[in-house]
Amino acid sequence: MEADSYYTITKNSEAIFKDKGSRFLAYAYPVEDEAEIRARLEALRKEYYDATHHCYAWRINPQEERTRANDDGEPSGTAGKPILGQILSRELTNILIVVVRYFGGTKLGVPGLINAYKESAREVIARSEIVEKTVNAHFKVHFSYLAMNDVMKVIKDMQPKIISQQFDNLCESVLAIRRSMAGQIKDRLEKCEGVNVEFIGFK
Q1: Is the dihedral of CA 144, 145, 146, 150 positive or negative?
Q2: What stretches of the chain show up as alpha helix (H) in DSSP?
Q3: What are the φ and ψ backbone dihedral angles of 198, each rounded to 5 degrees?
Q4: d(CA 74, CA 79)
Q5: Taking phi first (over 0 means left), then psi (-120 to 50 degrees means alpha), and beta for anything else, what does residue 9 get?
Q6: What is the pLDDT of residues 3-45, one digit of tens each?
Q7: How far apart, in whole angstroms, are the C-alpha atoms of residue 115 and residue 125?
Q8: Are 159 and 152 in contact (CB under 8 A)?
Q9: How many Å separate Cα 198 from the centre of its chain?
Q10: pLDDT in tens, 78-100
Q11: What is the spatial distance between Cα 175 and Cα 160, in angstroms, rounded to a whole number?
Q12: Which domains does the chain have, with CATH numbers?
């Protein structure tokens, strides 16, 4: 059975790490998709246009995990990978971590770089508020006014989140419930006469 919960951060956070004159400015952001990631990266590149490197890693989509790591000109595997390693070790998703480096004049070498990016990511995660969220199945439920009592009983019993509802001769409710309970609520609703259940997707 697939997991129906995941860990992420609630809001933006930042930290700074210094080594031999180099400064590493670390930023963590809660993100939902690649468009949001691109916007965050673009904003940081504009703000810190004079920085030596903008290295990052991200992990999104708890249902079909996607990750990426970027060294942005640092030696291969010394920046993005250590950042991603910290994200994975804390089992976080829907998160972007960017580490902006200002070179201080002294080369750190491969082990030094790996340590600097790892510590920068570790520190910004430590400063973040981590929460557990559920992967929810979303359904659109169409039903006649006569079926309202049956539908409301299922909702009362199973306690899905009601996203929206509209009552008329033909009624519609949009419901969200954690993935592990999706099959059960769909079965119960479909057994009610005059009810049509449309699966929208997971979020």
Answers
A1: positive
A2: 34-47, 80-89, 109-126, 148-158, 182-190
A3: -115, 120
A4: 7
A5: beta
A6: 688 999 999 999 999 999 999 999 999 999 999 999 999 999 9
A7: 15
A8: no
A9: 25
A10: 999 999 999 999 999 999 999 99
A11: 6
A12: 5-132 (3.30.230.30), 135-202 (3.30.70.240)
The three-point CA angle 179-137-185 to 5° equals 75
> Are 135 and 64 spatial neighbours (Cβ–Cβ below 8 Å)?
no
d(CA 125, CA 98) in angstroms, rounded, equals 11
Return the closest-CA partner of residue 102 out of 62, 139, 47, 61.
47
Using the 8-state DSSP alphabet, how is residue 93 labeled? -
Q: Exposure of 91 by Cβ count < 10 A (0-12 exposed, 13-18 middle, 19+ buried)?
A: exposed
Q: What is the pTM of this model?
A: 0.81
Going through 4-72 in order, the beta strands assigned E by DSSP cover: 5-9, 13-19, 22-30, 53-60, 66-70
